């Protein structure tokens, strides 16, 4: 259902009256980002539907309110998939919310992030103007890459109306291998194997076991299995493990304790932090539970080439993302002023001053 006219009119009226808008899809990712004051809801859930899908051309164009489930079912019929394996975090998850948060799943370090697969967008800026960027092929390099700029911006720069994504064929075979090992050894092995021509598509260490997923042709997967070794998970158990990890249903994520995400250089050795750690993305993504000193955690992450985010739980009225250097923050402010000069789109969701 095309809701462009309704959405555009609401944004224009809000702009004229300087009324803040809270962009809402299905609400499955409301936990992410800063908690902000109540504002007039801009509802995108009914703006849905697949506009254009060409399996032979490996792209799909769809409206932002389209559910991930609908999209993935359509792709599966043609033997294709979203390569960045996004988490749902709720059955009604939409493609717009997924891209606004910039979420990618276990396949991310080996296949690329959500941003890498965005070819083009149709959006509304904070003035209610209809803008289009990019197209339907990878080689769209004229001008600024605004399409990908919107990914992870939490709706602070514009409202996604439509998005064109690159899709890929599903692998012929997938296999999950398990090694009993400690954290330090797991990190070393993940990085060693990532540097070799192996069909890795996911990796994780859960505190006792290193899990590795292989994806590709029968021959390539068999050869990699012979090289890596380890116990083989039953196919259905392997599928369930990666789904539970992606959707935060793994036992590590259970409970209400604050959840922190650290992005660091993959080869970073074990960090001297109390409590349990779960590692993904070849060592590049590390999850921590419990109350932490945010400043100390962010400093530690920066020392190892990354950043720390309060992902879920804890106090989201404060800043939840890594503070930006002054020059970079000034650039963010200039972008916000250019796309949303009256500051009405999800104000404060990303940073208090944005």
From TrEMBL:
GO molecular function, one term: oxidoreductase activity
The keyword Flavoprotein appears for this protein: yes
One Pfam family from the record: FAD-oxidase_C
Cofactor: FAD
Keyword Methyltransferase part of the UniProt annotation: no
Domain FAD-binding PCMH-type per the UniProt entry, residue ranges: 1-170
Keywords of the record: FAD, Flavoprotein, Oxidoreductase
PROSITE patterns: FAD_PCMH (PS51387)
Domain of life: Bacteria
Protein name: Glycolate oxidase subunit GlcE
